[in-house]
Amino acid sequence: MKLRKIAKSRDKRISRSKKIGLAPGSVIYTGLKNKRDLKIDLIQYDSESFEEFKLKTTQECLSAVVPGKVNWFIIDGLNHVSEIESIGLKSNMILLDIEDLVNIAQRPTVSFGEDYLKVIFKLLSYDTAQELVSEHLSMVLIKESLIIFHESDEPVFGSVKDRIKTGQGRIRSRGSDYLMFALMDYIVDHYFQLTESLTEKVELLEDQIFKGDDQESITNDIQLLKKEVVRIRRVVNPLLDIIGRIVRLEGDLISDPTKVFLKDLQDHVSQVVESVEMNREMIWGLMDMHMTLISNKM
Asked: Is the distance from CB of 183 to CB of 152 less than 8 angstroms?
């Protein structure tokens, strides 16, 4: 089994260095996709209607909001800092929260404003070369609207869009808070797929150790898997606290029916965390087993 190197640490150092010496609340894009075009999609719906629009600037976003409908904005292009800062300020967000929207080094977290909720996620997936890819994604929930900020190279939330368009399930009859839950559920489902792929890698590596395959290659693969599982834990583990804090939120941003679904989602996250921890223990066990076999051969 050949595992490619995980994201280059040098790239991470470059992105983090952009923040050194700046005052808190400085809205600086810390990613590397500096030539990305700004794309803004707007999906508006209620139980009776569905419409989809392309917007040119973030200035159009809040003026396009239709009361009584769910207004879902999908903003692609975190490098367009001035546009993102503008919509953040118009949504009454504080600069510290706007800063997190474009800071790709920010870990998953949740924060609450006077009339908004902001959640930071990481979209995790394996590419065709089985390399772990992480994409920064933010959700901002305000009354009757949900704003998504991302820079993923792949289309995001396609299945959720299809459900809204075709009127499948309960999503068309619920508010923007339920849409936020549906997107979070989508992300957690992908974490399940990720942990299944991780388990397959661990099991394959275990078979290779027993077969006595190339020792140096196995040692490198174990080290790469250890780094991989650390990255996954950093992304997945905070979700338990994030969802718990959202469920305990008072006010009318999150309805009681949606909190019921969020509590169920929290249970799903617990299962993902348990799977990640199980794989972590197996990887450490494989390292001990591998070193023991090498010692016995010597």
From this structure: no
Report the pLDDT value the prediction gives residue 5, as an integer from 0 to 100: 46
Return the structure tokens found at 291: 């070193």
C-alpha distance from residue 152 to each of 16, 74, 124, 189 (Å): 19, 11, 10, 17
* Residues of the chain scoring pLDDT < 50: 1-11, 13-14
Residue among 253, 294, 235, 291 at smallest CA distance from 109:
235
Q: Mind giving me the DSSP string for the chain?
A: ---PPPS-HHHHHHHHHTTTTPPTT-----SS-TTPPPEEEEEEE-SS-EEEEEESSTHHHHHT--TTSEEEEEEE-TT-HHHHHHHHHHTT--HHHHHHHH-TTPPSEEEE-SSEEEEEEEEEEE-TT--EEEEEEEEEEETTEEEEEE--SS--SHHHHHHHHHT-TTGGGS-HHHHHHHHHHHHHHHHHHHHHHHHHHHHHHHHHHHHT--HHHHHHHHHHHHHHHHHHHHHHTHHHHHHHHHHT--SSSS-HHHHHHHHHHHHHHHHHHHHHHHHHHHHHHHHHHHHHHHHHH-
Compute the residue count for the chain: 298
C-alpha span between 233 and 20 (Å, rounded):
26
Sequence letter at residue 211:
K
Tell me the one-letter amino acid at 132: L
pLDDT given for residue 188 in this prediction: 95
Q: Own/partner pairs for 118-121, CB < 8 Å, 24+ apart? A: 118/93, 119/180, 119/184, 119/242, 119/246, 121/184, 121/187, 121/235
| Per-residue model confidence as pLDDT tens digits over 115-153 | 999 999 999 988 878 788 899 999 999 989 999 999 887
Residue with tokens 């949740």, as numbered in its chain? 110
